[in-house]
Structure formats: C-alpha cells, structure tokens
Amino acid sequence: MDFQLKDPNTIAPWKCADKKACCIAIDNSTVVHDRDSLLSRLREVLNHEIEKGDTYPYETPLSWEEAEEYFLKYCTVICLEWDGQGPLPNLQSPINWKEKLLGFFIIKPNYPSRCSHICNGGFMVVPETRGRGIGGILAHAFLYFGPRIGYKSSVFNLVFATNAASYKLWDRLGFTRTGVIRNAGRLRGQSKLVDAYIYQYEFPPLDQEAQVEDAS
C-alpha cells in the first residue's frame, strides 16, 4: 500500500469566523515575507514554554537551527487573527507576528517508514491569547489538516497527567486514551515524577468529516 504526504501549501486555510481566526499550513517551501521574523516568533513562544518546564519534555531551548528543523522540516500550521469576513492574511505581505499570531502546531510522522502514515502533533497557544478558545481552534484545525496532508491517524505520545486543559480537550473530541506511561516526566514544580497519557485518533474519510471543518 503506497503512502505519500501531500504538499501542505496546496491545502486551503481553515477558517473559524466566530472566533475571528484562521489557520494556514506552511513548510520550508512556503513563500513568507520576512520568514525569519515568523520563525523568530515561533521559536520565542516555544522556548518560553520549554523554559516553564511543565508541559513539554524538552529541557533546553531550541537553537535557531533546531527551530528551523522543528517548524519547517514537515509542516507547521499557524493560527492568525482574522476579522472573519474579509480576505485572509497574505503571508507574502508584511505581518506583525507579535500581534497576529494566536497559536500554532506542528504535524509530522510519529513513526518512520511503514508506519509514517501515523502523525504526531505539538500544540502551542501564544501566552497573551490564552482564555480565548485558541486551543480548541488548533485542535479542530488539526483534525482538518491531518487527513488532507495524507495521514490516516494520529498518536500523541506524552500528554502529561498534570496538563488537564490538554487531556480534557482530547477526551472531549473523541480521542482514545490508549495507554499510560508511569513516571514519564520530571516536570518543573512537581515534587515527584508525573505520568503521561498516550492518545490515538483515526481520521475519518474526508467525505465523512464535513462537520469537523465547520466546528469551532
């Protein structure tokens, strides 16, 4: 059975008009005005979360080169502020990323070769935009982009038991909690090792998931 990922640049943006946001997929080939400014903002937000030390497994902030590989080797979906009616943001025009970027997530294969049709995602809400439902927007956008890129299902390897906002979201969206990794994380602010949950979601055929595309 052949498997090939599609170019994320060919996938239409995902719109969430009632939240005044849209999500656009990019990779290393995407033409972005002042791409370094975008990458700098993505790296800044992710490294802030890494330094907090309570949701991501990394201990050391990403270098510039590591950030380029992390965000652009496969696909990153950026969530941008949008008025809900007018034209979508044009990535080839100047954008104030500090003001317009609401959140983002990466999509990449979770396993190599014969299992590469199963993807993994890493999600981040910009700290200044928390409390606006951006996490839910990112989750629904993931369900939109994942199967369109060509993935058949998704596995999240480490959803820490202390991250209630995350696991409650995946539970609500129908992800299956397939396992528990005991004592998985040495997280900042915790006096003992923290368990992590494994989640899986099988993407439905595209002709059966129109409701996901419209969800918010």
Automatic annotation (TrEMBL):
<feature type="domain" description="N-acetyltransferase">
    <location>
        <begin position="24"/>
        <end position="204"/>
    </location>
</feature>
<dbReference type="GO" id="GO:0005634">
    <property type="term" value="C:nucleus"/>
</dbReference>
<dbReference type="InterPro" id="IPR016181">
    <property type="entry name" value="Acyl_CoA_acyltransferase"/>
</dbReference>
<protein>
    <submittedName>
        <fullName>L-azetidine-2-carboxylic acid acetyltransferase</fullName>
    </submittedName>
</protein>
<dbReference type="InterPro" id="IPR052742">
    <property type="entry name" value="Mito_N-acetyltransferase"/>
</dbReference>
<dbReference type="Pfam" id="PF00583">
    <property type="entry name" value="Acetyltransf_1"/>
</dbReference>
<dbReference type="GO" id="GO:0046941">
    <property type="term" value="F:azetidine-2-carboxylic acid acetyltransferase activity"/>
</dbReference>
<dbReference type="InterPro" id="IPR000182">
    <property type="entry name" value="GNAT_dom"/>
</dbReference>
